[in-house]
Amino acid sequence: MNEDQVESIGERLRRLRRERNLSQRELAGPGVSYAYISRIEAGARRPSVKALRTLAPKLGVSVEYLETGSDLRDDEEREMRLADAELRLRLDDGSGAAATLREILEEALRAGDGAAATRARVAVGLAAAREGRHAEAVDHLEKATASEYVTPVTDINVYATLGRCYAALGGPEKTVELLEACLAEVRGAVPTQTAALVRYTTYLSNALTDMGEFERAEAELQHVLDESETLADPHMRVRLYWGLGRVVAHQGNTAAGLDYLRRAVAMLEATEDTVQLARAHLMCGWILISSGRAEEAGSHLELAEKLLGAHPEPIDLAYLRTEQAKRAVKLGDAGEAITRAQQALGVLGDSDPQEQGNAWFALAEAHALKGAADAADEAFRRASDLLQLHGRAREAAAALRAWARLLRNANREQEALDVLERAAELGVSGRQAEVRPTA
Predict the structure, then answer these.
(1) What pLDDT was estimated at residue 427?
(2) Is the four-CA dihedral 252, 256, 260, 263 of positive or negative sign?
(3) What is the Cα–Cα distance from 193 to 199, expressed in whole angstroms?
(4) Inter-axis angle of helices 413-429 and 373-390, to 10 degrees?
(5) What percent of the chain has pLDDT over 90?
(6) Which of 127, 188, 343, 398 has the fewest CB atoms within 10 Å, i.e. is most exposed?
(7) Taking the model in full, what pTM does it have?
(8) Are the C-beta atoms of residues 369 and 337 closer than 8 Å to each other?
(9) Is the pLDDT of residue 64 over 80?
(10) Phi/psi-derived region of residue 212, left when phi > 0, alpha when psi is between -120 and 50, beta in every other case
(11) Is the pLDDT of residue 339 over 90?
């Protein structure tokens, strides 16, 4: 063939077939008859996409080469594999997709393809976070955010997930520091990124609430409301109602907290965001249980479980099981409470020490309700240590007071007084006290 002559698909198909010593009948397959192949080679038919996909593997070439005569460049082929793996992750085909992404990451690093390597790191990191592997997620996401390809303005979910992983590993201060830096960059962006501003402010408010800095958490949200017209967007309103409901409920104003959360629920019901709706119902359940209305919380927890679906994120499942355990304790069902609290602890593993403390607290009260004093004593010990170090002062003090009641009932008066003294220290300071070793 003359160098200037362009090889047609039919000519290329015939050449490849002959090079491989295949007859038209041998090359034929389901939906691609030898007569069809003959017409393609004669230039009388152009092969369909299905035919190309059937013939290319038999000839040992890519579909791209059979159709055009040239293969994809390495970076183009890597881009296609990345997109396919990311899609499979979103469709819950996690194991195979994660392995592919790790292969792509190694290839991209060897090839110096920074964009593909960062994209693969992000996907692997987000997948690890969803599965509760927070340390692995932090490793990948920190490297991704250190690159030029990821910024707080364009990649909110990456930074939000990294912040959640810091908190789950017991580093709420790092979460706050990260989110403050993100907010500073967003505020300096032109034009102003209002949606990003609202999201980061809500995340920051949640992190501050977890640290017990309620006034500052509320002030951050109010500042956004005062400086922009964010309430014009329903999605932004949901986030702000959510944040305000959470912080005022933690301050003890359960009526206002429920009011804000119910507004968020009403708006989320008009969307298809079932996960956020589930989380809103879960928070309503938490508020009702905390305010002594455990019976009313049942419908919210049932809806939350239904909306989370068959494969919830581990942290959502752990929160749900903990609240179900707490509700069962309030309703006097010790067996149900023990089962749910143990499930929560099993899901959490070594992650999220604050939520571990809450689950141990629920398990301790369940054992106490059942009359298993030794098991309750050990669970209260674990809960108190975790909540003093990683939780809010209010929760830690509540666990200590409940533990003291158990000790008094067991005529262990001096131990009970020591535990009450620790609770009093928390109440006076309003802050987390240093954890004392408990023998």
Answers:
(1) 61
(2) positive
(3) 10
(4) 20
(5) 42
(6) 188
(7) 0.66
(8) yes
(9) no
(10) left
(11) yes
Residue 358 has pLDDT above 80, yes or no: yes
How many Å apart are CA 325 and CA 335, to the nearest integer?
9
* Torsion-angle region of 31 (φ positive above 0: left; ψ -120 to 50: alpha; else: beta): left
294-308 and 314-330 are packed helices; what angle lies between their axes, rounded to 10 degrees? 160
Beta bridge pairs of residue 437: none
Give the count of beta carbons closer than 10 Å to the beta carbon of residue 252: 12
Query: In the predicted model, is pLDDT for residue 428 greater than 50?
Result: no
SS3 of the chain: CCCCCCCCHHHHHHHHHHHCCCCHHHHCECCECHHHHHHHHCCCCCCCHHHHHHHHHHHCCCHHHHHHCCCCCHHHHHHHHHHHHHHHHHCCCHHHHHHHHHHHHHHHHHHCCHHHHHHHHHHHHHHHHHCCCHHHHHHHHHHHHCCCCCCCCCCHHHHHHHHHHHHHCCCHHHHHHHHHHHHHHHHCCCCCCHHHHHHHHHHHHHHHHHCCCHHHHHHHHHHHHHHCCHHHCHHHHHHHHHHHHHHHHHCCCHHHHHHHHHHHHHHHCCCCCHHHHHHHHHHHHHHHHHCCCHHHHHHHHHHHHHHHCCCCCHHHHHHHHHHHHHHHHHCCCHHHHHHHHHHHHHHHCCCCHHHHHHHHHHHHHHHHHHCCHHHHHHHHHHHHHHHHHHCCHHHHHHHHHHHHHHHHHCCCHHHHHHHHHHHHHHHHHCCCCCCCCCC
pLDDT of residue 175: 94
Q: How many CA atoms lie within 13 A of 120 on its CB side?
A: 23
